[in-house]
Specification:
With about 500 residues, this protein is mainly alpha-helical. It is built from 19 helices and eleven strands. The chain folds into three domains: about 35-170 and about 210-255 and about 330-410, no CATH class; about 265-295 and about 310-320; about 415-465, no CATH class. It is extended and about 105 Å long.
């Protein structure tokens, strides 16, 4: 009696250590963040920073808030001379860049520790800023933001006045204590001299053996502090769990796509009528079939057009693919993206320029929430900008301190907005300068241009306005005043009037 082949099967766990974590199994009674306020804050900031760098919807939302919120700065003279006012106009781009950096850190971590150091700026650098009337000025030399990971916040009996400490990294400790030498022996005396010049107290404390230094900074910004902790709440904190769920969906799609690329070729040999046996003939047949299938992988062609396979009638080849319907269906991301936007309080219309359903939604009503978010960090950042402006005026003995503000955020429809401005201008409630500024023009520049144009028009005897189609060229006869005879009243009309009397 012929012995049949044994059918065997096995299941192998490819990665048993990869256990999916469910963020929703934690409740308010069992919170997984139990390492202390600072560690909880740093862990949340790390996750927020990761998703800002990796998730397109999150990064676009934050970038939109910054691009719209930090638009431009407006300075008002407030008694300054023209040359003094040009100093602040020259600082505008540098201040805007610093404001964008503060806004980004505010939206990612919620903790902004600005550092501004002032120094003497020579004439060459002033010219690059568009300042030409001064040989030397005291202006911001460095403007930067401390890493929130190096900041420790201690709650005080006064909740609105906590203490801030900076933890100095080991490499910086070694650099300062060895007078500008790094642990690998590299020296940078210029950087060490800058530290000693701009931060003398800090360098002295580090050399005295301190690893933590108390920050005496009155312009530290915190976002939405709760009574539970002195650390702020990051803007993305309410969306982190949803973002993790979205990333797990991405991992699922990638896993399915990977299995499609590495599909299984199932080879069935034998049937009920012609079973496969353990005989030498059947074994040779299996070896020959295996060699034919392995031979096709020895070629250099990436794509197989035709492959010849010689088998008997009992051989069946079948490709096994996983179900890819879940991969092709993108509806699973629509709901989760909507939840992310809900958590961030940002409308879809400001990202894509349209609502999810046509005709459903109002642009002005949808923009109320992001406008309040932008106004919040604009007002806090403006306190730092005003301090910089004050210090520049004070250190250079200017006659006054200019007023500074951000441009208003305008989400109104353009035609409605212009119509309202026109009515306000006609009623005398708006100046020409402000009206031109709204439309992107400078009134003083336009007046000077018009005066220059008028001189050229009169000098070259050209018409002040462009000619219309079929219009006649101006002549001397056109400029003379002609008397037009008054039409006589018809007699019938006179009779009617007399009868009316």
């Amino acid at each position: 009696m012929t012995k049949l082949q044994n059918a065997t099967a096995s299941i192998v766990s490819l990665d048993p250590s990869d256990v999916t974590k469910n963020p929703w199994r934690y409740t308010w009674e069992k919170n997984k963040d139990t390492k202390g306020p600072q560690q909880d804050f740093l862990s949340m900031v790390k996750r927020c920073r990761f998703y800002y760098e990796r998730d397109p919807l999150t990064s676009t939302t934050i970038n939109k808030l910054i691009d719209i919120g930090i638009n431009t700065l407006k300075f008002h003279k407030n008694g300054l001379s023209d040359n003094e006012f040009k100093v602040f106009e020259g600082m505008k781009n540098k201040l805007l860049g610093f404001a964008e950096d503060m806004a980004l850190e505010y939206l990612i971590s919620g903790l902004v520790v600005p550092e501004v150091e002032y120094g003497s700026i020579p004439k060459d650098e002033l010219k690059s800023l568009g300042i030409k009337k001064y040989d030397r000025l005291t202006m911001p030399k460095t403007m930067w933001i401390r890493d929130p990971a190096s900041i420790e916040i201690k709650a005080s009996p006064l909740p609105d006045k906590p203490s801030y400490f900076v933890t100095v990294p080991d490499e910086m400790l070694y650099f300062i204590r060895n007078s500008g030498t790094y642990p690998d022996g590299t020296e940078d005396q210029q950087l060490y001299a800058s530290f000693s010049t701009y931060y003398p107290d800090f360098v002295e404390k580090i050399k005295a053996g301190q690893n933590r230094v108390l920050l005496e900074n009155a312009f530290i910004i915190r976002r939405r502090v709760t009574t539970k902790s002195a650390y702020p709440t990051p803007y993305l904190s309410s969306a982190v769990d949803i973002l993790e769920h979205k990333r797990n969906l991405r991992r699922t799609d990638y896993s399915v796509a990977n299995k499609v690329l590495s599909a299984i070729l199932q080879i069935k040999v034998g049937s009920d009528l012609f079973p496969m046996t353990a005989s030498e003939e059947d074994t040779q047949f299996m070896d020959g079939l295996k060699n034919q299938l392995l031979w096709r992988n020895r070629g250099n062609n990436d794509v197989e057009n035709i492959f010849q396979l010689f088998t008997s009638h009992v051989v069946e080849l079948k490709w096994i693919f996983p179900d890819i319907s879940i991969l092709l269906n993108d509806a699973k991301y629509q709901e989760i993206n909507q939840e992310i936007l809900f958590a961030l309080g940002f409308p879809r219309i400001l990202i894509a320029g349209e609502t999810e359903r046509s005709g459903a939604g109002d642009q002005e009503f949808a923009s109320l929430a992001p406008i309040k978010t932008m106004d919040n960090f604009r007002n806090k950042i403006l306190t730092v900008i005003k301090e910089i402006v004050y210090q520049v005026s004070k250190r250079n003995n200017f006659t006054s301190v200019p007023e500074v503000e951000f441009e208003p955020i305008n989400f109104h429809k353009f035609d409605v907005y212009i119509a309202a401005l026109s009515k306000l201008f006609d009623s005398g409630g708006l100046s020409r300068d402000s009206l031109a500024d709204v439309l992107g023009y400078n009134f003083n520049d336009e007046v000077e241009k018009r005066a220059s144009e008028q001189e050229k028009v009169e000098a070259f005897n050209v018409p002040a306005f462009g000619e219309n189609p079929n219009s006649r060229p101006p002549t001397s006869a056109d400029t003379t005043k002609t008397d037009v005879a008054k039409p006589k009243t018809p007699a019938s009309t006179k009779k009617v009037i007399n009868n009316g009397k």
